[in-house]
Protein 1
Amino acid sequence: MTHLAKQALRAQRIETASWAYGNSGTRFKVFPQEGVPRDPYEKIADAATVHRFTGVAPTVALHIPWDRVADYAKLSDAAAELGIALGTINTNVFQDNDYKLGSVTNPDPAIRRKAIGHLLECVDILDQTGSRDLKLWFSDGTNYPGQDDVRVRQDRLAQALRETYDRLGAHQRMLLEYKLFEPAFYMTDVPDWGTAYLHCARLGDRAQVVIDTGHHAPGTNIEFIVAVLLQAGKLGGFDFNSRFYADDDLMVGAADPFQLFRIMHEIVLADALNANAGIAFMLDQCHNIEPKIPAVIRSVMNVQEATAKALLVDQPALRAAQDSGDVLEANAVLMDAFHTDVRPMLRELREDMGLDPDPMAAYRRSGYFEKVRAERADGQAAGWGA
Ligand SMILES: [Mn+2]
């Protein structure tokens, strides 16, 4: 069993996010950090560093316009030279003044056209980077009852999605993300997996739902959503992060490692861990008070640990207990796996892969931070990213 688990863990792929490497903050304050990247090329260098020490993070997601460059093929080549590839392209229709009342659902057709134009531009970027996935998240919604018509807004959304979907190449996918609330507080246009599913089902096979673990009400059974979407063939991927209260974007596995294990258990049960299953395992996090690169390394390790535990579930024993109605035994089989210390197995795996068994210590020893802090010293003075 351990051998099979190690094989699966060796093949696991976790995508990091470019924005996790730059300065970020809360609504109240950004605490700038030394050594943060000054441009998309430097974000890619940091992502490649995470891959160098973990061995399982070979792609980095981009966010447009934050990562806009003149030549995406050149950026792609730069990533390849560092041993990684460009991943999911994230769209942004939430930061322009025009979008105060919504982007693709805005009452003004000219603003809707502008928003759709951005989505189509991002498909052009997919073509240039060779990325597979276009990820959409809409901040659209209303703050007050009566502010706008729910069904009319759904129709506007459906039209925008259709136009974008029809522009996708044969090997490209659309990942639609939902979020319960914020920045809209009364009604959000894509608030839950059901709404996202409805739109994706109408669009076609290459429209898939993405689950951001921080985008639910407290107490939501996220692994149930995982199971249902897997069964429907509509789970496209995850934005992993941790939450205590709202969309906290903390390190995945920090707030609730048991939840992460339960999610990965559903993935393993459905044999959806391997790349052929088409599930994108992405990190969507911001590291506001902790050093960023080691925080991403820690997050990758947390996903690995939850996955390893899920792989150690004795599935025949679990099934036998379930079939015989043995509630306590079924629960015990699951908990045995969760309580297993998988860190020795992961250290062995890393040695097998030619990596340092302790990525955090290896990163610290590498001197990478000291190097970029010196190289990028002018960035903080220039206010880069802050
Ligand atoms: Mn997200």
Protein 2
Amino acid sequence: MQHGKNEGEEYIQAFPHLKKWINECNGCHTKGYDPAMPEHIGETEWNLAAYYVKKYFKPQTLDENGFCEQCAKHRK
Ligand SMILES: [Zn+2]
């Protein structure tokens, strides 16, 4: 099993409410977390959620078309 990438995938599968903070690029389908994500998500029990999301994913912003910086560059 591949390490790293799948861990993050499994994590958001286990906690689907975190998906709203995950940005997936329409071009390369790279996933990253929304840099606007707060330090703590929701109730006390989820306090570690943001920590793990940041651990498993890189910050990723998407442009208005849903493309990451890399893909947006290539499209120009
Ligand atoms: Zn991309």
